């Protein structure tokens, strides 16, 4: 069974797109058993109403790390798929991903990203700012953003996400997890990602912020202070 865990905070505009894309997978791969768990950080819009209408389980969250951990506590699946609320799964996502995950004998995996839109400029920026760097550093410094697939037993060995980390907790998590299980990037399909954080803060500003975060993680360790002023639900 696959447990899909989505941390949310005021995601009424994006969550329906993700849940519809998940529901579409069920029609394409009807024998797959899965559950969707929404770990909400206190939404005051229609997020929870939308989640209920789609038949999702709901638990309390706070930060993305805490939300993922709380979702994992009630998850029934032996595979956990952590997703950000502002992504869309492409067609045949489950079919391709689960096949590749099994054939490559992976314990944890992440994905390349491409924008929701068909704008060539945005596709180029996603390749330059994200896909190329994580492909280049895959064997040395693992990265994961917006989507992580992991065996539940491996998740429990790691001890879940560190809720004290203030920024880039997903990157820190996969770096710890790869010590216990095989980590690679899924090659057969890309996640459709919203460029909203780049559009709001600026592409170069966001890119350099993550470069500084990378330097901090390599030389100073996990980011447990509010030096990057990240605020969940700020997009």
Your description of this structure?
The chain is an alpha/beta fold. The protein has a single domain (2-219), classed as Spore Coat Polysaccharide Biosynthesis Protein SpsA, Chain A. It has 9 helices and 8 strands. It has an 8-stranded mixed β-sheet with strand order 3-2-1-4-7-6-8-5, with helices on both faces. β1 (2-8), α1 (15-28) and β2 (34-40) form a beta-alpha-beta unit. The radius of gyration is 17 Å and the shape is globular.
List the main descriptive attributes of the protein structure presented here.
single chain, 235 residues, alpha/beta, Spore Coat Polysaccharide Biosynthesis Protein SpsA, Chain A, 8-stranded mixed beta sheet, 9 helices, 8 strands, globular
Main beta sheet strand tally, sense and closure? 8 strands, mixed
Proportion in β-strands? 15-25%
Q: How many alpha or pi helices?
A: 9
| Unreliable spans | none
Count of DSSP strands: 8
CATH topology: Spore Coat Polysaccharide Biosynthesis Protein SpsA, Chain A
Based on secondary structure, the structural category is alpha/beta
- Second rung of CATH, namely the architecture: Alpha-Beta Complex
Look at the structure and give the mean pLDDT.
Answer: 92
Instruction: Provide the CATH superfamily.
Output: Spore Coat Polysaccharide Biosynthesis Protein SpsA, Chain A
Q: Distance between termini?
A: 32 Å
The domain tally reads: 1
Placed side by side, the strands forming the largest sheet appear as: 3-2-1-4-7-6-8-5
Described by the principal axes of the CA atoms, the overall outline is: globular
Just give the CATH class.
Answer: Alpha Beta
**Share in helix:** 40-55%
């Amino acid at each position: 069974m696959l447990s899909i865990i989505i941390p949310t905070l005021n995601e009424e505009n994006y969550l329906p797109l993700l849940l519809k894309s998940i529901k579409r997978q069920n029609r394409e791969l009807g024998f797959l058993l899965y559950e969707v768990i929404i770990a909400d950080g206190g939404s005051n819009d229609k997020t929870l109403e939308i989640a209920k209408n789609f038949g999702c389980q709901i638990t309390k969250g706070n930060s993305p790390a805490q939300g993922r951990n709380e979702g994992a506590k009630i998850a029934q699946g032996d595979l956990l798929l952590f997703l950000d609320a502002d992504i869309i799964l492409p067609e045949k996502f489950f079919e391709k991903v689960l096949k590749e995950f099994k054939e490559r004998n992976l314990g944890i995996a992440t994905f390349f990203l491409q924008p929701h839109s068909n704008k060539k400029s945005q596709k180029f920026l996603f390749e330059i700012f994200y896909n190329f760097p994580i492909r280049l550093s895959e064997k040395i410094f693992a990265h994961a953003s917006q989507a992580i697939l992991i065996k539940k037993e491996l998740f429990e060995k790691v001890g879940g996400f560190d809720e004290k980390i203030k920024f880039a907790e997903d990157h820190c998590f996969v770096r710890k997890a790869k010590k216990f299980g095989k980590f690679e990037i899924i090659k057969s399909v890309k996640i459709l990602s919203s460029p909203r954080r780049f559009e709001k803060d600026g592409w170069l500003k966001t890119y350099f912020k993550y470069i500084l975060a990378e330097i901090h993680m390599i030389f100073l360790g996990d980011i447990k202070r509010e030096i990057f002023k990240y605020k969940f639900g700020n997009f």
